[in-house]
Amino acid sequence: MSDVTRRTLELLAQLQTGRRFSGKELAARLETSPRTLRRDVERLREYGYPVSTQPGPSGFYRLAAGQTLPPLVLDDDEAVATLVGLTLLGATAPREPFDGNGFAPAADRAFGKLDQFLPHRLRPAVVALRETVEAAPQSAPAVRPEALAILGTAAARHEYLTFTYLDRDGHTSDRRVEPYRTIYLHLRWYLLAWDVRAVDWRTFRLDRIDEIVPTASHFTPRPLPARSGAEYLRAGLSASRHRAVVTIETSAAAVADALKFQDCEIESRGPDRCRLIVQVDSFHWLILQVGLIGAEFAIEEPAEFRDQAAQLAQRLNRAAESRPT
């Protein structure tokens, strides 16, 4: 493959993300000059790809949507990633009772249509993957794709939204918010927003949001209350939990596999040592999980965790030394 062809395909791959790119950013990603970038953009236009541009200090390049395009250009890794993503979307949805909501129906339809837009070379791989890849169904609340699209559009446009919200106690309230981020964590979708009436940041479960209405009025965006929406959400969910830090004499991969369903940080300290930082409801639960990994470990903090581990060890020793009567 020539350098020009490779560079053009890389440019197309960047633009197909749907993002706007400044000329400087796009040239840096492609490791080329702005002049060469402009020539490559013109080459894509000659091939039929509608690349729109806006000049000036705030200018950008973007692949225009809603127009007829040539066949979808995916390399082998991108095709595999797309199909696996659709498979996982189809699995993380409630199946009983099935009401047609959620991502599963849309993912199934997209899976079936994808091969129509791929080059002939990739179609056998698509067929093989669809016939052989499956994901075990996981119970998760249904979220309507159109709701997620409305929230994302409003957040990008800095547009106020109103909706009704059902809280954990079953009470419904009307909300007016500034939407900022949609976040996926532990098989749940959340909205991070500034609640106008509460005058504070709030997170809302998307499966409890209904009657979403864009208002066509706009707000001036605020700085996020944390480095990311996910960080803020994790902090809120773990506010009532206990923080524990443990050094374990085994690899980070082994600990990650043992605690794959636990939201935690695992820092590698070498091939056979790692540091676990986790928020838990119960120290007893954690000591059992860590103990069953089968490696030596040391509790760094807190002291309460060490005390409860010592008490549990004493009870286990007494149980092991006891004799039937």
Structural description of this entry:
The protein is an alpha+beta fold and 325 residues long. Helices cover 39% and strands 24% of the residues. The chain has helices spanning 3-15, 23-30, 34-46, 76-91, 104-114, 123-132, 145-157, 229-237, 252-258, 283-291, 303-321; strands spanning 51-54, 60-63, 159-166, 172-185, 188-195, 200-205, 209-218, 242-248, 264-268, 274-280, 297-301. The strands form three sheets. The chain has a five-stranded antiparallel beta sheet. The relative contact order is 0.06. The model is unreliable at 95-100 (pLDDT under 50).
Low-confidence stretches: 95-100
Based on CA inertia axes, which overall geometry fits? globular
H/E topology pattern: HHHEEHHHHEEEEEHEHEEHEH
The CA-CA distance between the termini, in Å, is: 80 Å
Q: Counting H and I runs of at least 4 residues, what is the number of helices?
A: 11
- Overall mean pLDDT stands at 83
Major β-sheet, in short?
Answer: 5 strands, antiparallel
The neighbouring-strand order within the major sheet is 6-5-4-3-7
Strand content: 15-25%
Q: What is the radius of gyration computed over CA atoms, rounded to a whole number of angstroms?
A: 25 Å
Query: Could you estimate the helical fraction of the residues in percent?
Result: 25-40%
Class inferred from helices and paired strands: alpha+beta
* SS elements, strand count: 11
